[in-house]
Amino acid sequence: MSxxxxxxxxxxxxxxxxxxxxxxxxxxxxxxxxxxxxxxIKSTENPGMAGNTxxxxxSIGKEFLNNTNLQILSFYGDLGTEKVRYIDxxxxxxxxxxxxxxxxxxxxxxxxxxxxxxxxxxxxxxSDYNKGFLNETTxxxxxxxxxxxxxxxxxxxxxxxxxxxxxxxxxxxxxxxNFHLDPKNIIITKxxxxxxxxxxxxxxxxxxxxxxxxxxxxTFTAAFAIGWWMYKNVxxxxxxxxxxxxxxxxKKGVVTPF
Length: 258
Prior knowledge:
Blueprint: E1 8-25, E2 39-49, H1 50-64, E3 70-88, E4 94-100, H2 112-120, E5 123-128, H3 136-145, E6 149-153, H4 159-162, E7 167-171, H5 172-177, E8 186-189, E9 195-197, E10 200-202, H6 216-231, H7 234-248
Parallel strand pairs: 1-3, 1-5, 5-6, 6-7, 7-8
Antiparallel strand pairs: 1-2, 3-4, 8-9, 9-10
Helix pairs in contact: 1-6, 6-7
């Protein structure tokens, strides 16, 4: 009998963009205004938003699942949006962020192909930036047709929609918009203080010095999904997600743990 583990099939749905970091140096203020004169040194770029969630799934999956046992699909809303951050190379202080093509995304209308694909996945992750790609009807359809669903959202959810998802991942600010919801399926991320579920706090077991929090929420969501698949229980999945998130905040930029 083969010892090959079953393949984990994950679908990521949401808006995507390009995250670009321009690292600079500065040693003087402009004579024209009280602002620093910045000199670009180098730049990096990578997929952001839902694209960063997918990157993290690939990174964590390769490390812990063996990449042959992980299949990742995606339905993206893509405007060619760029988020360009100008960063001091020495201190990692952000001088400025410039977003381009940041209009509303064309809405996703689910057809039979989409629904069939959703039903076939072990886990469906919604990376919802509330920019028009997903509406409540579409969210309802996704949740109703998923075996196991996780939504990471910037919107205020109705109780009817929230109850359809297996888990909802929110940071503390996002949770303040959604305090009316039943917390039974809500995981609240709290930065270096870990995460909370059902009023139980799960501290970060090895908190790192925070250099950059950009994209850490995507890492947590991806790691929680893979952790749930590995451990089949929520506390261990949260601890695993805390561990992965602590790795990325100790690095510069929007990165993956490995």
